[in-house]
Design a protein that fits this description.
The structure holds 2 protein chains of 2 kinds. By secondary structure, chain A is an all-alpha fold. Chain A has one domain: Amino acid/polyamine transporter I. In chain A, 71% of the residues lie in helices and 0% in strands. Chain A is elongated, with a radius of gyration of 28 Å. By secondary structure, chain B is an alpha+beta fold. Chain B is 46% helix and 10% strand. Chain B contains 6 helices and 6 strands. In chain B, helix 3 crosses helix 4. Classes of the chains: A mainly alpha, B alpha+beta. Chain A: It is a multi-pass membrane protein. Chain A: Belongs to the sodium:neurotransmitter symporter (SNF) (TC 2.A.22) family.
């Protein structure tokens, strides 16, 4: 085969190159994307946003943002991956050599994410293993040392909060008191990493089979929970509360920006995982259809999960409200020796008035203990994140019949969601590494995957310390948020304006068989980048314009700065390094000899600059 | 005669009232939550139940002090309310007009709490002696925590899976290496005809993944459009 000096194009690999591993069928690819995109955020972030920003009314900005921002950006990433057939670093290098920094930034962000994300899987394992007991360990408070009552810490809060903060995290009072590594959590973290290693060991061969389970099992559990949730006593209260639209929230700009941010992060754009998954596709795969399918399924799952969550909320709120009322009734009948059953929830206020009138002194003594029980107050406690997943849900589960079964189902679902997302994250790190010839020549794939898992596990042990949850919050808030928005902004601008939207159109035509219609082009060129800018703005606190709003010690601030800088600086640094290398190469390949005429010089320049 | 009898009775009644009243010395308040405990099977609290209670208290005192001197008449109840709560004292017949010390009564009740609860089909929570706190029974804890057992099982399965995959991977790799070295040796000797297409041996072509022929890479720009 003649090696012609053509500009390096994708697909040109020379004669004897090993072919790229592929998904067994397009369904595996779709399942992998769904498994990656549908993660814990759909379960624990979207219901919170719904509650905060107007209930049923939030669906309007959410769906609009899905169509305007989510689908186009997802299609863009999948198309880039499928066309370039390389991981993020290689793909962006092909688009423009100055953009290799974008790929590196994606890998760095994925690395940070996988460090702390697997700790959630460790917690899910911990709860799962503890679900095989009767009664569930978070159902009752432990007894205090002389067995006359319950532990003081537990009495003040609740048994589920005690189990989460004391028995699971063993949290220290602040970030400064690091404490020691909790060996139980460390074991669970190691197990979580072993599970991830098992799934990515063979690359797409093993990942392709695993995603069948991680993508479909959560839906089975969600359906079971939907049926169970809707039949719980008081679930309707939660659903009414959620779906009553508060349309005045639509005029609040925060609502729209939150919707945009949620769509953006929910789809997992910018990490390089989608590019990695798409690079294992057949070149003729219809990624446009798949992009639409995946984004629709992701959003539908969010809405579905929030129905389940709100019926659980309603059940928990009703249960707590009724317990509160019963406690007040008990205090009253004990203090005034009234007959049992004479005071019920209906006549409680009348009885209170009567007692206040007839026994004013005794009633006044009692009044600090008589809380005002309100169902709205219970429903208003909006929770998101680990608090929702591990405290609110476990509290609801402990009050159901056969709690062990529901507990096991729920935590298995959390595990599937978490592991599915981890598969995407590790693919984003490993695909560029296995694409690089220098590394694959020396080490087999299994060793590279093992090394990545091992390093992440060791660093992840920080999150199992007593102050680990504070570090977790830091990573969760700062490791990915700013960097991703910048990465995707640069990506969109690069594809539309540097690579050229016409060239991209032609590539897509070559792959799918038809050109993208005007809608996609307008979204890529104008709408999606324009929507990212206000999201960037929102990250910086409106009051002081600074990124960090909480009061952290200086070394924590240094870590935050490092996290943000490590990924964002890659983009300009990559461009700079490429520029310098080009200059050096150009100077080297053009020896100052008299035999070279002007034609040879220009030809040489063309060859060198195109081989980068 | 009758007058003397009436006088003694009234004195006794007054003495009783003196001994048994709310917050009296050595008196205990008892609170029963029968409806909470038994729901539809709840019984009504009447004089017979009170008699049973007195009997149980006398029984407890007898068991505790091992003296057979406490009679049912020694247990005095008063201030019975609709809640079903009342006060009681245990009098000492040997010493006139005095009550058994509260500590003794408390110890007796603690010793026989289980029997007393069962007599009324109630529990520590629903039959409360307000000054006597009950010690809560700790939950049954197995010797090895259950979670470690489940963890161990899952860990073994995962490690077995990893080892299996790694070993099969190594074997496949070795087999491939052996085959390619064999073929190279045979090629050097010129004994094996390897079907070759365009310089690529057929076996190396992975038919599933396909092989992109670079010369024909989709490149519309090189072909003149119609």
């Amino acid at each position: 085969l003649l090696r012609l000096s053509l500009p390096s194009k994708p697909g040109w690999r020379g004669a004897m190159e090993k072919s790229r591993p592929l998904w067994d069928n397009p369904l595996q690819f779709v399942f992998a994307c769904i498994s990656y995109a549908v993660g814990l955020g759909n379960v624990w972030r979207f219901p919170y946003l719904c509650q905060m920003y107007g209930g049923g009314g939030f669906l309007i900005p959410y769906l609009i943002m899905l169509i305007v921002e989510g689908m186009p950006l997802l299609y863009l990433e999948l198309a880039v991956g499928q066309r370039m057939r390389q991981g993020s670093i290689g793909a962006w290098k092909i688009i423009s050599p100055y953009l290799c920094g974008v790929g590196v930034a994606s890998v760095v962000v994925s690395f940070f994410l996988s460090m702390y994300y697997n700790v959630i899987n460790a917690w899910a394992f911990w709860y799962l293993f503890h679900s095989f007991q009767d009664p569930l360990p978070w159902a009752t408070c432990p007894l205090n040392s002389n067995r006359t009552g319950y532990e003081e810490e537990c009495e003040k809060t609740s048994s589920t909060q005690y189990f989460w903060y004391r028995e699971t995290l063993n949290i220290s009072p602040s970030l400064e008191d690091s404490g020691s590594i909790q060996w139980e959590q460390a074991l669970c973290l190691m197990l979580a990493w072993l599970v991830v290693y098992l799934c990515i060991l063979r690359g797409t061969e093993s990942t392709g089979k695993v995603v069948y389970i991680t993508a479909s099992l959560p839906y089975c559990v969600l359906i079971i929970y939907l049926i169970r949730g809707l039949t719980l006593h008081g679930a309707v209260n939660g659903l009414i509360y959620m779906f009553t639209p508060k349309l005045e929230q639509l005029s609040n700009p925060k609502t729209w920006i939150s919707a945009a941010t949620q769509i953006f992060f929910s789809l997992g754009l910018g990490f390089g995982s989608l590019i990695a998954f798409a690079s294992y596709n057949e070149p003729s795969n219809n990624c446009e259809r798949h992009a639409v399918i995946v984004s629709l399924i992701n959003s539908t799952t969010s809405i579905f999960a929030s129905i389940v969550t709100f019926s659980i909320y309603g059940f928990k709120a009703t249960f707590n409200y009724e317990s509160c009322i019963n406690k007040v009734i008990l205090i009253l009948i004990n203090a005034f020796d009234l007959e049992e059953g004479s005071v019920t929830a209906d006549n409680l206020s009348d009885v209170k008035e009567y007692l206040m009138a007839t026994y004013p002194q005794e009633y006044a003594q009692l009044s600090p203990q008589l809380k005002n029980c309100s169902l709205e107050a219970e429903l208003d406690t909006a929770v998101q994140g680990t608090g929702l997943a591990f405290i609110v849900y476990s509290e609801a589960i402990k009050n159901m019949e056969v709690p062990q079964l529901y507990s096991v189902l729920y935590f298995v679902m959390l595990l599937m969601l978490g592991i599915g997302s981890m598969l995407g994250n590790t693919a984003a790190i490993l695909t560029p590494l296995t694409d690089s010839k220098a590394i694959t020549a020396r080490f087999p794939k299994e060793v590279i995957s093992g090394a990545v898992c091992f390093i992440n596990c060791v660093i992840g042990l920080t999150f199992t310390m007593e102050a680990g949850n504070y570090w977790f919050d830091i990573f969760n808030d700062y490791a990915a948020t700013l960097s991703l928005l910048l990465i995707v902004l640069v990506e969109t601008i690069a594809v539309c304006y540097i690579y050229g939207i016409r060239r991209f159109e032609k590539d897509l035509h070559g792959m799918i068989g038809r050109k993208p219609n005007w809608y996609w082009k307008i979204m890529w060129a104008f709408a999606s980048p324009l929507l990212i800018v206000p999201e960037l703005q929102r990250i910086f606190s409106p009051l002081q314009g600074q990124l960090v709003t909480k009061d952290y010690p200086s070394y924590a601030l240094a870590v935050i700065g490092l996290l943000v800088a490590a990924s964002t600086m890659c983009i300009p640094l990559g461009a700079l390094v490429t520029f310098i290398r080009k200059r050096l190469k150009r100077e080297r390949t053009l020896p100052p000899s008299s035999a070279t005429g002007p034609c040879w010089k220009t030809a040489a320049t063309i060859i060198c600059s195109s081989y980068l | 005669m009758l007058r003397v009898l009436l006088l003694t009775l009234s004195v006794v009644a007054v003495a009783d009232a003196e001994l048994c009243k709310p917050d009296a010395q050595n008196a205990f308040k008892v609170r029963l939550s029968i409806k909470t405990a038994l729901g539809d099977n709840a019984y009504a609290w009447d004089a017979n139940e009170e008699y049973l209670f007195k009997a149980m208290m006398a029984f407890a005192m007898r068991k505790y002090s091992r003296k057979s001197t406490t009679q049912i008449s020694n247990v005095l109840l008063c201030n019975v309310t609709d809640r079903v709560s009342f006060w009681f004292v245990v009098t000492d017949s040997s010493k006139n007009v005095s009550t058994v010390p509260g500590s003794e009564v408390e110890a007796a009740i603690r010793m026989n709490r289980h029997r007393i609860n069962n007599a009324f089909l109630l529990s520590d929570k629903t039959l409360q002696f307000l000054k006597i706190t009950s010690t809560l029974s700790p939950p049954v804890e197995p010797s090895t925590p259950v979670w470690l057992i489940v963890f161990g099982v899952v860990l073994c399965l995962i490690v077995a899976g990893i080892v299996l995959l790694v070993v099969t991977g190594i074997r496949k790799h070795k087999k491939k290496n052996k085959e390619s070295t064999e073929r190279e040796n045979l090629e050097e000797k010129g004994e094996v005809t390897v079907t070759v297409e365009n310089g690529i041996p057929c076996e190396a072509l992975d038919f599933k993944a396909g092989h992109v022929n670079g010369v024909f890479a989709a490149d519309d720009e090189r072909f003149t459009s119609l």
